[in-house]
Each structure stands twice: as C-alpha cells, then as structure tokens.
Amino acid sequence: MLAEFSQHPELRELLLATGEARLVEHREKDSDWGDGGDGRGRNMLGLLLMDVRQQMREGLA
C-alpha cells in the first residue's frame, strides 16, 4: 500500500490532506477491514492508511 501512495502523487496528496483525522472504513459487513458498521470492528484498513500517512510525513516514502 505504501508503494501505491508513493507512486501516485494525487493519492499521496489526498491522504496527506486528511491531516490528523482518524480514518475509518465504515462497512457493515466487514468487521476486520472495516468498522462493522457500528464502530466495533477492527478497522484494519483505516489503521493501515493512518500508518502509511505517518510514514509519508516522516519521509519514509
């Protein structure tokens, strides 16, 4: 995923534009990658995106 945002400047800018916002994949039928629709899911996609965003800020990508 890091490569995707590193290779596409428009995606990189979109992700960095989220600032410090908590990113959540709101999906009712997915409690692993999403929040399960009620906020109790693992939200792994949101966590991964926030990690990529931090790495880009630190100049690691």
Give a verbal description of the structure.
The structure is a single chain. The chain is elongated, with a radius of gyration of 12 Å. Helix content is 46%, strand content 0%. The protein has one domain (2-57). It has 61 residues and is mainly alpha-helical.
Could you name the key traits of this structure?
61 residues, mainly alpha
Q: Number of helical segments?
A: 3
Shape descriptor: elongated
Name the helix and strand elements from N-terminus to C-terminus, one letter apiece.
HHH
Mean pLDDT figure: 96
Q: Quick summary of this structure?
A:
Helices cover 46% and strands 0% of the residues.
Please give the structural blueprint:
Elements: H1 2-7, H2 9-16, H3 44-57
